[in-house]
């Protein structure tokens, strides 16, 4: 399972190209080749490639790495289904993993609108987490959520760990997007993205991650991003602030309040 920072990031002395890392990299390459082949054959596939740099790795308020990370991803979508491979590469030796992949996530999602209710959408899916170069065993979550075509586009999503924890994490969020706040040309412009979320953990979830046997509001997050579109590419600088909320969880986390900066490069094709 995914642990808090003192446990999760204790590293095994393995080469970056060990079995788990190699499998993750191979999956990224194969996914990309499938995407390219699908578009060459003019099938109805949409693909997205993203490469993000962040000053910290924060997950649900937990500071998993207080220094620089690189997080690439590749997603392929068709007929409402989206398969995604995501990775985290530690760029320093902060967690005894000098320039090594410490996580690969594999997800499958299905999203659509509820029939005859065009203002309400839903998502269901599964996430498999693998942690090469660490002592953390893999784990898996399933999830379901609703999103609403209302001002601030509110959403709610329930995650259920189906491995060791068997606990629930619920996330509530809102956001707003302004496509263009400044324009150089029709193919070069800057937008604005704002978002905030709050997370709630069940007693079993909090016991598994924080040794706290109480259900609590766990974490709060706020972010702002300025995506800059240049032809088919998007460059997205962002600022993100997160904070753990309950006292018992704050005592169990290494750093409970975090400000991080990032910049991403992405392309859809």
Give me the secondary-structure topology.
Blueprint: H1 5-8, H2 19-40, E1 46-54, E2 57-59, E3 62-65, E4 69-78, E5 81-90, E6 100-114, E7 117-130, E8 139-148, E9 155-161, E10 168-185, E11 188-201, H3 203-210, E12 216-225, E13 228-230, E14 233-244, H4 247-252, E15 257-268
Task: Describe the model.
The chain is globular and about 50 Å long. It has 269 residues and is mainly beta. The protein has a single domain, classed as Porin, CATH 2.40.160. A hairpin with a 2-residue loop joins strand 2 and strand 3. The protein contains 4 helices and 15 strands. The N terminus is likely disordered. Strands 1, 4, 5, 6, 7, 8, 9, 10, 11, 12, 13, 14 and 15 form a 13-stranded antiparallel β-sheet that branches. It has a two-stranded antiparallel sheet with strand order 2-3. Helices cover 15% and strands 56% of the residues. The chain starts with a helix and ends with a strand.
Care to give the gist of this entry?
The protein has 269 residues and is mostly beta strands. The chain is built from four helices and 15 strands. The strands form two sheets. Strands 1, 4, 5, 6, 7, 8, 9, 10, 11, 12, 13, 14 and 15 form a 13-stranded antiparallel β-sheet that branches.
Features of the shown structure:
disordered N terminus, Porin, globular, two-stranded antiparallel sheet, 56% strand, mainly beta, 269 residues, 13-stranded antiparallel beta sheet
Strand content: over 45%
Task: Output the helix-strand order.
Answer: HHEEEEEEEEEEEHEEEHE
Pairing-aware structural class of the strands and helices?
mainly beta
Estimate nothing, just give the exact number of structural domains. 1
Low-confidence stretches at least 5 residues in length (pLDDT < 50)?
3-20
Helix content: 10-25%
* Broad CATH class: Mainly Beta
The CATH topology: Porin
Query: What is the count of helical runs?
Result: 4
Shape: globular
What is the CATH superfamily label? monomeric porin ompg
What is the typical, i.e. mean, pLDDT? 86
CA distance, first residue to last residue: 34 Å
- Looking at the overall shape, the CATH architecture is Beta Barrel
Roughly how many Å is the radius of gyration? 19 Å
Question: How many beta-strand elements?
Answer: 15
């Amino acid at each position: 399972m995914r642990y808090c920072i003192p446990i999760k990031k204790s590293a095994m002395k393995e080469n970056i190209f060990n079995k788990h890392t190699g499998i993750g990299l191979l999956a990224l390459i194969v996914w990309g080749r499938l995407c390219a082949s699908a578009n060459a054959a003019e099938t109805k596939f949409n693909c997205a490639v993203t490469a993000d740099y962040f000053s910290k790795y924060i997950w649900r308020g937990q500071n998993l790495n207080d220094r620089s990370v690189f997080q690439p991803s590749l997603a392929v979508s068709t007929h409402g289904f989206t398969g995604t491979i995501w990775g985290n590469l530690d760029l320093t030796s902060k967690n005894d993993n000098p320039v090594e992949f410490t996580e690969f996530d594999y997800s499958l999602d299905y999203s659509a609108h509820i029939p005859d209710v065009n203002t309400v959408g839903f998502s269901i899916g599964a996430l498999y987490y693998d942690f090469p170069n660490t002592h953390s065993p893999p784990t898996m979550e399933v999830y379901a959520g609703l999103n609403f075509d209302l001002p601030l586009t509110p959403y709610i999503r329930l995650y259920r760990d189906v491995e060791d924890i068997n606990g629930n994490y619920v996330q509530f969020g809102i956001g707003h997007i302004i496509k263009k706040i400044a324009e150089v040309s029709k193919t070069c412009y800057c937008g604005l993205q704002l978002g905030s979320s709050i997370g709630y953990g069940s007693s079993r979830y909090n016991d598994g991650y924080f040794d706290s046997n109480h259900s609590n509001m766990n974490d709060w997050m706020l972010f702002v991003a300025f995506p800059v579109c240049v032809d088919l590419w998007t460059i997205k600088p962002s600022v993100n602030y997160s904070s753990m909320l309950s006292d018992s969880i704050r005592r169990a986390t290494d750093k409970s309040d975090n400000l991080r900066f990032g910049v991403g490069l992405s392309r859809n094709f």
